[in-house]
Structure prediction request, 468 residues.
Amino acid sequence: MNPIQPPGGGAVRIERDSLGEVAVPADRPWGAQTQRALVHFAISTERWPPEFIAALARVKRAAARAHRAGGTMPAALATAIESAADDVIRGGHPDAFPLSIWQTGSGTQTNMNMNEVLASLATARLGETARVHPNDDVNRAQSSNDVIPTAIHVALAIALARAVEPALHALAAALREREQAFRGIVKIGRTHLQDAVPMTLGQAFGGWASQIERARRALVPALADLMPVPIGGTAIGTGLNAPPGFGTAVARELAEDCGLPFEPASDRFALIGAHDPVVAAHGALTAAAVALLRIANDVRLLASGPDAGLGELRLPANEPGSSIMPGKVNPTQAEALAMACVQVIGNNTSVAMAGAGGMLELNVYKPLLAHAALQSARLVADASHSFTVHCVAGIEADAPRIAAHLSRSRMLATALAPHIGYDATARIVHRAIDAGTTLREAALAEGVGGDDFDRWVDPAAMAGLPPR
Prediction:
């Protein structure tokens, strides 16, 4: 039987697996199973993200180290696999991992892609006379079913700890700085997109900062739930074909390698058949996205204009806003942040459905979980950082515009109600609207004394600042 041929022609070599011969491009480091997957899963353009590939290589390196320390693999072989994994973790051979996300639900093709690449690289280190086998050596005591979820935990935990958390921390700090800068600027608050009672611009920024700080705190339990890993459970959780203590040793190596307290799962069946910790971690990312989306939309509204909108905030002019309207500046950072957040919120549905996709002893949506969760982590981290640096840090207040809006608002009358009653206050508001007069003029016409009005209707005091 003729072997499966790669598209495009060119020099090939023949690789073999349990199903027979496969022609592989001569310059590629993968083997037969990766080539089969390229033919059989030519679906869309989504590929495994580099942070997952690095995490998978970390798992393989930790496994080789555990075998070497436990005496279950010759030291020279283990060292060659470790060295090959080092290359991948450092970003070497980026073209060696071409497979689509849309493959078998266990991620077997990508596990074998890594096994074949590391076997090829390790063989080159040892010399062709000592061929490293992708299954018997690189995948020794492992299954795709425990390796892939372990790599997902590693990749997602690193993303949360080293990218998402610092980005949210920096954004909250920038919002707190603006809170202090704007603490004395009294503005009109708004509910239902209508005028409400006064507040300070600093209070608005402080509220946003509190949302981000809450989202950041929610990462702590989510990160903790990712620390148990199912490695050592092999196919379904029993640990068949793994030496005693192997999972514990691999988890210990991962913890030392990543600086995170990974540990062997107390119940490996739960983390192979289901992925609740990933679903929960994505829930924390979604909560952050919800908060970020609200803030992005508030900033867009407050900066709307500059002539026919609210115009209370001035955003940095990072780039021309229009290809046809000269001088236009748009809230581009807020728009980019909003789109990223909508994608994260959409991903949450995918993650929830994928998390519920466990059937009996195996969840078969592992690649989708990896793709969606890691994309969401990148989006929250990168969009938050960009919004912080290119928008929040440069936001300015248009104090005259804010003061003008405040002075015209009839909702300042709310401060009269405790003194003259709701109904009398409502008459004053309607009189001011109908007659087109100021609130003060309408109040005086309804019998409120001028001194009383000035004492009672103090926007700064209404916003919680010391009375004037």
